[in-house]
Amino acid sequence: MTALTLTSAQRRELRAQAHHLEPVVMIGGDGLTGAVTKEAHAALNAHGLIKVRAMIDDRATRDAAFVQLCHDLDAAPVQHIGKLFVIWRPMPEKTKTERDDAKPGPRIVKIVTAAKSANRRPQVKKVRLLGNERVTPGGLVKRAKAPRQKSSKK
Fold first, then answer.
1. In sequence order, which ranges of the chain are alpha helices (DSSP H)?
2. Within this chain, do residues 19 and 69 fall inside the same structural domain, yes or no?
3. CA distances from residue 38 to 25, 34, 44, 83, 90 in whole angstroms, order as listed
C-alpha cells in the first residue's frame, strides 16, 4: 500500500502535538517483530499519533526499522530523532457499540390527547425530548427528577 505523505506545515503541527507524548511502543533488541507491529497498529487506531522508542544501537538498522514500520502500518513518518520515532496515521471511524446506544439522547415521542367532544379525533402531537426530559401522564414535558441531595449536617 502507499505510504502517507505530509507537507512541511502538517509535519510541524504533528511534531508540536507529539512533543508532550510518551513512547507507547518499544522496539527491543530483537528488532522489528510482528508483535511490535501489532502493538503499534493498535496504538495508532487508538491515538492516531504515537511515539516509538527503539532500543537498537545501530543507526542504519534504526533507520530501516523506522521506514519499515511506517510502510507496514500505512502511516506517515513525522520525526526521527535518535532512538525516538513519531508516526501518524488518520484514526479510523469508530463503530457503534451497545454502550453508545444506551446513552440518553434526543428522541421523538407522540403525545395523544383526547378531544373535548366525543365526535372529534384525538390530537396527536410529536415532541422532541432531550435526555433529561420525560412526559407526564397528563401529556406535559418535564425535566426528569434529580435525586434529592442530603444534608451533610445530619
1. 8-18, 34-47, 59-73, 98-102
2. yes
3. 10, 6, 10, 20, 17
Instruction: Kindly give the confidence (pLDDT) of every residue in the chain, 154 residues in length, as a single tens digit, with 9 standing for 90 and above.
Output: 456 889 999 999 999 999 999 999 999 988 899 999 999 999 999 999 999 999 999 999 999 999 999 999 999 999 999 999 999 999 888 776 656 556 667 889 898 888 888 888 988 889 898 878 888 888 888 887 777 788 887 6
Whose CA is closest to 133, among 148, 124, 146?
Answer: 146
Alpha-carbon distance of 108 to 137, in angstroms, equals: 17
Nearest to 130 by CA among 101, 109, 152, 114: 109
Show the domain range for 116. 102-139
- Domain-located, residue 97: no
C-alpha 93: how far from chain center: 8
The three three-digit cell numbers of residue 84, written as one number: 525516538
